[in-house]
Amino acid sequence: MRPRILIFSLAAMLAACAQTTTRSVATPAAEEPAQPAWRSIAKPEDATMLDGLDEIWSTGLAFATEHSPAKVKAEGAMIEPGAALDHPALPPGSYRCRVIRIGRYADKSGFKSFPPFFCHVKSAGPDQLTFLKQTGTDLPSGWLYPDGDKRYVFLGAQQDEPGDNSLAYGRDRSRDIAGFVERVGPFEWRLVVPHRDPDGLDIYALTPVPPNQQPD
């Protein structure tokens, strides 16, 4: 009798197992990384232009190198597309800002360097920086937004008067400016602004000004 009882018990257990519903464990969906804040502010045309900056830069630099190789070589990492380093945030304070224009937009030489002027960076809170060109004829002013480990995005506008910052990005499309800020060496940064033509770009070479040489 005992073997029959064991067989019956085993059969009952197998039947019970067969009726058990297998439950699948739900896998939570992976969260998409948050978009940088600047993408919700930038106009679509500017975002597209910044996303395609590598091509604009390469084309402009190739033209400048063909027609002004010695001048291009003298600038070194300041105008090299792949020279960006970590820690791109500009420390608040005054800077000398020298504009280097490359590409067909510059002139037939593909390269033009302007005298240095003064710019100023101000902190408005954690990861909140403003940039203002204080002297010269081109007077960009705007905000700097973090964008990864190697750059900030600049969104601003050309102002009417030195020291003015009343015209905000997005109010007058003809005067809007978009670009990248990158660190390229010890105490060396650059603001790279592509032209909308797009036949070139302006590179603002930025170096801190000693306190005793800062403008009033």
UniProtKB/TrEMBL annotation:
Keywords recorded for this protein, A-Z: Signal
Species of origin: Stakelama marina
Highest taxon in the source lineage: Bacteria
Record-linked InterPro entries: DUF4893
Protein name stated in the entry: DUF4893 domain-containing protein
Residues making up the signal peptide according to the UniProt record: 1-18
